Amino acid sequence: MTTENSHKTPSYTITCRMSHEAAALERLCQVVRIRGFRIAKMAVESSIAGADEILEIALTIQGHRPVAMLQSQLEKLHTVAEVILTAPALVPAASRRA
Which domains, ranges and CATH numbers included, belong to the chain? Predict the structure, then answer.
């Protein structure tokens, strides 16, 4: 169900690289939620880098709060190696009319 209000919510894309540890992904999702954002889309890929297992996570998030604050909080997680904030996510025209 879509509401008119959801169309006005800013959307951002974040790419995060982190160590694959127990509950690491859950902690990342918790920080996103606590900081006032909603995960609209998430893709996770696992890879091996040397002896370490790495998670590459692409998030499309929505929220009205400053996204730089969320980026800063994600970077503080001990399992996170890198957080990249790309330009605000573009919503396809067809989705905006739904």
Answer: 7-88 (3.30.70.260)
